[in-house]
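Pair request: fold both.
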Amino acid sequence: MTIDIAFAETDEQIAATFEVMRQLRPQIAQDQYVPMIRSLMASEGLGLLALRDGGAVRAVATYRVMRMLYCEKLIYVDDLVVDERVRSRGYGAALIARLKEQGRALGCSEIQLISRVTREQAHRFYFREGFGIECFHFRSRLC
């Protein structure tokens, strides 16, 4: 496997991640994807990593760095998705390793993410990658 993991920063690079991202986030319209990512980059410090193999985007991750009272600085993974056609080839593990490296470089004490309770396959993957369940994530809609 010859892979390249790089930040997607130009409109063209961001747009190239859409087809993989929509597998996790199908509600996002293609024409709104680049503006939405750009907006989150500007307002929230969102980072977008694209894993390419053979020139094709195979996996993507979005993340941000946050400060919390209980753990100081952390890297929070908003989205991590591997193209369903090429799962179980090590792409997800490579992205997690890169995110951990990024977190350490930025002085983060930990990496966090949430995953819906129905995503059992993803949970097995996260356990293999050294994540554990430490709390419940509560949510209530406001509108």
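--- second member of the pair ---
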Amino acid sequence: MTSKPTPPDGLVIVDKPPGFTSHDVVAKMRGIARTRRIGHAGTLDPMATGVLVLGVERATKLLGHLALTEKEYLGTVRLGQTTVTDDAEGEITSSTDASQVTRDAVDTAIAKLTGDIMQVPSKVSAIKINGVRSYKRAREGEEFDIPARPVTVSSFTVYDLREAVADDGTPVLDLVVSVVCSSGTYIRALARDLGADLGVGGHLTALRRTRVGPYKLDAARTLDQLQQELTVMPIAEAATAAFPRWDVDARRARLLTNGVRLDIPDEYAGTGPVAVFGPEGRFLVLVEEQRGKARSLAVFG
């Protein structure tokens, strides 16, 4: 009896199709890679497309650290209509003529949503309020508030303004935007808040994630392409792309993989996770600096 081949440890960069939840993509990939040991780094709404980072086998241990990295999006914001979900998936709750909104007014409002801001996530998000998912409370018609959270919007750029008419006859304004932001930022909440500030309401009609940390769309593969050929970024390559690299000798390698807190060079202080490689170039362990010592986060070698 031949045993089935073990899938390689590493990352799969998926170009998520519309209509799929992140969990749907994981389920599909479990079939393609023939393993249950697959997870994802940060969800993407069903409406959205683009970069979804999956970990296969031991690389699942990287995911929690990758989920905290910066993300980049291309999207379309419709000014003039609000929806219950802050995106095109939900029913329209108000319509206001947006034809008088000027580019200057848009730029001023966007400036207020750039930098370090406090953001209230959408009520139909996966945020937990007292242990219950926000979207579950919203579906059950419950009245509740979500506390604002600090997020960073490094850049929020408008590429194009297009006048349009919504299905109900309301003159609206569609903005093609790009956003670079910290983990935990909701783009549909930016659309909602932009519309609210301009007095006409707003929601997100399209969203494509073009980057998660160092992993970009050009490295992503569709599920159909992955079905034809499973493309896995080796775990060492993935770690090198995402984290600072610290090469150590055999003695240090052995001690670090056993959880011994060795002195860590000053250059890694405050950098977050650091990927440790042994003398043969093998990826061994993920550590972080704590009081000048290397604290182990996850062991791979």
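Observation on the second member. The mean pLDDT is 90.
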